Amino acid sequence: MLVTSSNILEFESLRALIGRFVRSPLGKAELRKIDPGMDREKLEGALADAGEAIDYLGSVALSRQGARGSAVSLNFDSLPDSITAIQLLRIEGSSLEARQIYDLTQLLDRAGDARSILAVVEGRFPRLAKIVAGIGDFRQLLRDVSGKVLPDGTLADDASVALRRLRRDMERQQKEIHSSLERFLKAHREDGTLQEEFVTIRNERFVVPVVAGQRRKVDGVIHGASGSGHTLFVEPLETIDLNNELVRLTEEELQEIARILFDLTKRLREHAPAIAAAVDIMGRLDLIFGKAAFAREFQCVIPRFSPDANRRLILREARHPLLEDLLRKQHKPIVGISLHLESNRRTLLISGPNTGGKTVSMKTVGLLALMAHAGFPVPCVEAEFPLFDRVLADIGDNQSIQESLSTFSAHIANLRNMLDEATPDSLLLLDELGRATDPEEGGALGVAFLDSFRRSGAFTLASTHLLALKIYGANTEGVVNASMGFDDETLQPTYILRLGAPGKSAGLDIASRLGLSPNLIERARAAMSSSERDIARFLSDLHLKLETTTALESLLKQKELDLAAREAALEKEWERKGQTKIRELEHRASEVIAKFEEQSRQAIEQIAQGLEQRKASENALRKVSKTKREFTEALDAEIHAGSGAEKSAQPARLKIVEGARIRMKGVRQPARIRRILGDGTLEVDAGVMKMKITVDDVEEVLDALPDAAMLPKGVSYTQGPRWDISYREVNIIGQRAEEACEQVDKFLDSAALAQVDRVRVVHGHGMGILRKAVTDLLTKNPHVEKFYPASPAEGGTGATVVELKT
Which of 283, 275, 292 shows the shortest CA–CA distance to 125? Predict the structure, then answer.
């Protein structure tokens, strides 16, 4: 557990802020368990889960914009709290209430949906998919239990045969009672006995209202009176036996309901460990996505943790989330802070004007450190923290009348305790060090404490107005001076943290802005010593130079960015020109090849015409060989002239045998050696041509092709289905939406291949989930021309008829 000053840093308020993004009681229960102080492995795992959830929500946002390949939204709203039901399942012999069973089945159904959705995107979101992989398969259990408990927490009539019979008998009995009472009302309608003509219930028995003074005219049992006493509720004698029978049936119904609930609970108890795991995972998942939603809303990043050998504290444009939430409501901007501390400079001393943001800056660093150590994303552009064992703060006025502590006494007591607890792995936040006493003595004490903290090796942030501490920060190695910005023209703080120089307090300037008399301000300036005025003037000049240097650095960085962009543009232009040159060379090479092929064709025709004379044939072949060599030389010259490439070395020796596949110089199409004629001459088949070439014309010997013809790699052939009739159907009742859609999709592909024009998808009525999933699929399927509910003879709304495109 991390030792923290969490109350001072308002960690519980931060927890409540993040809780606004957690949707369910299960997720909020997980959020309440979180405290800073996990070990590095768990901490980095929790942050990695949150980072993946942030990416997932980004993909969901893209899907809402119509992007392809995006993710499906997970909904944790109205996720029931089933923790009590899980505890009851662990008690053998206990029985869940109907509403608890319904809520538990709804949660398990939602858990199955989450598992299916995230399993599909396992390649992009492996951590989330691994989390939901722990959710069991409850489909058979849900089929056994679902539909027996209604959403209002009552058992359905179909929960058992006995329950249906009892409720049918009860309904018939109630009708008989009503008929009997209506006869009674009709008989006494005119004799003044009845107060009003209606039937009501008292003590679970049907009664009628009778005027109190007419009681003796009615034989029956009185079950109560009205508030005024003027009306008695009487059960007539002729309905007593009927009511008794209804009471008996009601008791049997309650017994049957208890039996059904016990059986359902027993069925759920068989899967109790898996159900408990699913509930835990859904709560954990809700928390992870709550962190991600908070991160997207407040533009957070996943923080890093520096290695122990190179401990660093880096924040860039960090914002206090509670302050940002408040300023958003007031439509005001927030200014982020940036700082960089590392092993050889662990102390940051902040000075500057009152109301300038020194305290908020330290609280921001402290709270963001706690957030990172609790596995929360942090609101900034970049964040890196050492792994702290303590985050301790002395901020605010801690005086106590009961403990006889003044502000100074409480301040010194806190510093003493922090000095006792500080370690090299601590983060210390000290507001107004040396305050509430004489400035000279306070400065001396502040220097002593700050130097002790520096020697302890802890990362320390301190704020001050005292000159002694500012001089200490400027002259001590390992201490970084920083200042909060102040605009001398408007006399307003800028809330910008600048490293490198101390800041002026600007108390007189701020007092002037707050409306104090100019004469009073002038008298105060006159009362300042010359050295104090000189120091204030020096600090003003120093800040002016620091602002100038910062502006020059920004200008230099912009010029570097512009130069890098220009270099990238030039590189892209050269690449474009190179590709253009290559395309030009390829075009010219194609023209040369075409010319060679035409010359070869002409030479072959000459050979065919002079085939009777062998000498003429050999001359023609030599002409072909010469033409080919000339083409090769011309092509090599053309390519080398354009690309400047060097000729590759000729292989020392080629293995030339009859039947071998070869590639000739300058010819793309492979050839096969027909015969070896001797004297280095080969007879080859090149496509439809047969020609004689020399061994020198062979560029390379190719590998032999396999004997059997093969399909290209990755290509397979499967005989399509035969559909001998024009109407088919697929039944998906009882399946989950994901499985059903996959089966229907394959079914439609097969039907389209078989040129079927009309099919039927049987999905049943149920809760409408399958029907909606099938409708969504059919709307997007390219084979579907139109679809509509089946006629009553074909299943009505329990089936959908689909007409396919022809």
Answer: 292
Task: Give the C-alpha separation, 462 to 427, whole Å.
Answer: 11
Alpha-carbon distances, residue 319 vs 4, 299, 323, 346 (angstroms): 20, 10, 8, 21
Q: List Cα–Cα distances, 443 to 44, 345, 436, in angstroms.
A: 41, 21, 11
CA 13 to chain centre: 24
The residues of the chain scoring below 70 in pLDDT are 1-3, 66-70, 189-193, 195, 213-217, 227-229, 355-356, 397-406, 436, 486-493, 501-547, 550-551, 606-654, 666-669, 687-689, 705-727
Contact 256, 166 (CB under 8 A): yes
Strands 671-678 and 390-394: unpaired
Quote the CA–CA distance of 151 and 262 in Å, as a whole number. 19
Secondary-structure percent of the chain, ordered helix, strand, coil, rounded to 5:
50, 15, 30
Query: How many other C-beta atoms lie within 10 A of the C-beta of residue 107?
Result: 23
CB 295 within 8 A of CB 54: yes
Do 241 and 211 meet the contact criterion of CB atoms below 8 Å apart?
no
Which residues, including other chains, have CB under 8 Å from residue 86's CB and lie 6 or more apart?
272, 275, 276, 279
* The pLDDT of residue 527: 53
pLDDT of residue 401: 41
CB 265 within 8 A of CB 257: no
CA dihedral 448, 449, 454, 460 (to 10 degrees): -140
pLDDT the model gives residue 274: 95
Confirm if 283 and 107 have CB atoms less than 8 A apart. Answer: no
| 348 vs 429: CA distance, rounded Å | 10
Give the total residue count for the chain: 806
Per-residue model confidence (pLDDT) at position 516 = 60
